[in-house]
Design a protein that fits this description.
It is elongated and about 60 Å long. It has ten helices and no strands. By secondary structure, it is mainly alpha-helical. The chain has helices at 13-29, 36-43, 47-54, 57-79, 84-100, 102-114, 120-146, 159-171, 174-179, 188-206.
């Protein structure tokens, strides 16, 4: 059985346990203090196994990022069916729920902290998260344009820029404020309200009248 397009194959359950242990320690101690030995102990695995499977800490966390992003993309693929108002609302809720989660906050904080020394952590986060998820949504928006439900012509924009507009309307500066601790992670009510508002504004910009 082949995997869905734009997603990675299912990860072995034992590897998932190790990735989960790595995330737990990342949330507790941050990236710099997370060691392969600590992950091995938490996962009840040998350090030799971790190095054989992942090579080093950087590649271990690249797989953590890939696994988290792939979960989002699999869920998104299952929901890319329906009118823009429904799909965008659902996507908005899912994305904000992900960004507000403890795992996502820990991963993004680690990427920011590592950027001056090694930008590859942040690059992996962008490649496996934003770029792949964005590609799925852009493809959906293109299909809705071709079906006559959306139009990007009036603003001389394309589906990629329209997607950026939606993310901007949805997230604003909330992610930055969550990462810096200025605000608490968004709760379910705020997430739903933001998704509803962003969808409504997006459709005012790009929706076809009477559709």
């Amino acid at each position: 059985m082949t995997s869905p397009p734009d997603t990675e194959p299912e990860i072995d359950p034992r590897r998932l346990e190790i990735l989960g242990a790595a995330l737990e320690i990342l949330r507790e101690q941050g990236y710099e203090k997370t060691t392969m030995l600590a992950v091995a102990k938490r996962a009840r695995a040998s350090k030799e196994t971790l190095y054989a499977w992942f090579g080093n800490k950087q590649r271990l966390f690249e797989e953590v990022i890939r696994a988290k992003a792939d979960g989002m993309n699999r869920a998104l693929l299952a929901e890319l069916d329906g009118e823009p108002a429904v799909v965008l609302r659902r996507f908005g809720r899912n994305l904000l729920t992900l960004l507000s989660g403890a795992d996502s906050i820990a991963i993004n904080r680690a990427a920011v902290a590592e950027a001056p020394r090694d930008p590859s952590f942040g690059q992996a986060l962008a490649a496996h998260g934003r770029q792949r998820t964005g590609a799925l949504m852009i493809r959906y928006l293109e299909g809705q344009r071709d079906a006559g439900r959306l139009s990007f012509d009036d603003l001389a924009e394309d589906p990629a820029r329209a997607f950026e507009s939606f993310v901007g309307l949805l997230v604003g500066d909330a992610q930055v404020r969550m990462l810096t601790g200025a605000i608490a992670p968004l709760d379910a009510d705020e997430i739903a309200a933001r998704a509803e508002r962003a969808t409504a504004l997006f459709l005012k910009l790009y929706g076809k009248e009477g559709v």
